[in-house]
Amino acid sequence: MRSSTLTKILAVGAASALALTACSSERSTDSAESTTEAESSTETTEGSEVCFGEGATIGVALPQKTSENWVLAEELFNDGLAEAGYEPLVQFANGGVTEQQNQIDSMVQQGAEVIIVGAIDGSQLGGQLQSAKDSGATVIAYDRLVKNTDAVDAYIAFDNYQVGVLQGEALLQGLAERQGEGPYNIELIAGSADDANSIPFFEGAMSVLQPKIDDGTLTVVSGQTTFEQAATQGWKAENAQKRMDTILSGSYSGDTPLHGVLSPNDTLARAALTSVSQAGKDTPVITGQDSEVESVKSIVAGEQYSTIYKDTRELVAQSIASVNALAACEEIPINDTESYDNGVKVVPSYLLEPIIVTQENAAEVYANDSTLAPLTEG
Ligand code: BGC
User: What domains are there in the chain, each with its CATH number?
Assistant: First the structure.
């Protein structure tokens, strides 16, 4: 089992501690219910425990840059971890799954104490995360759950199922507000099938929309109602746009109106809107997620109907707070122990609340966001 040599103690409740010694970073891995906890540590002369300290390597494996939130996360992790005294190792895997697997292996080799993972494919990291656990590191799934493995200690995310519920509700609300009385013609877009978030997004939305499809309020004119039919490989805009082009030419010829579109995020919403406008159709009510700059502008201008605010600053801060807890030999803060089953265990989670944003509440929701607030002014 790897031992890490420590230099200093972090300011995580141990600011005045004196002793700076090495301690084993071996941690328990055997409980699905409890959070991670150090098995052995060093006690300082003042009684504060230290499991790892200043200069400890913290790995952050991010996926591809498929939305602005990931780019922001990179910067926030680099700055926040460095500020807390750690050595951040933050990497994107734009080349795909193999690159991400290699990056995690390399983080393990470099002695990372904690590995925070935003998985490209949540089902393909089992081997790498097991090696991480075997080395004594703690594994935290960030934003996206990792599936079918025991080798994950905690999950920190915005509640993905709730994101979908909010999107479904926003679509219904937007249809009633902007498209008059139903019934309404809609289409469904889902995220990438390899991202563990895509199914909870879709299922959350369908929990709201399916009853309205069943009672005839909504008609999916293309007939493409399953997740598999609606999925967008790699979260790529061009894939969503191509699929929408095909649906529009096949199912919306002549004057058939498209009243609404369920889109799982902003990038795909804008792609769908491009397709609709190229087909010469009126703008449908369309949902989104991520509060990307272009989409917030579009919402303020009355085009895209809604987005979701998942403040990346909060998510990264919660992740760094967990690293600090581990450094002080404490448990990772958890507020949910039943929602996210990864196929092998229910992963103890810290879930943050997503917020729905429309033209009506944008200024209020973004009031404390220095990038987005100015977009809502005037
Ligand atoms: C994230 C979304 C994002 C999508 C594509 C998902 O896992 O939760 O916020 O839009 O990935 O990047």
Answer: 6-152+311-353 (3.40.50.2300), 160-309+359-364+372-376 (3.40.50.2300)
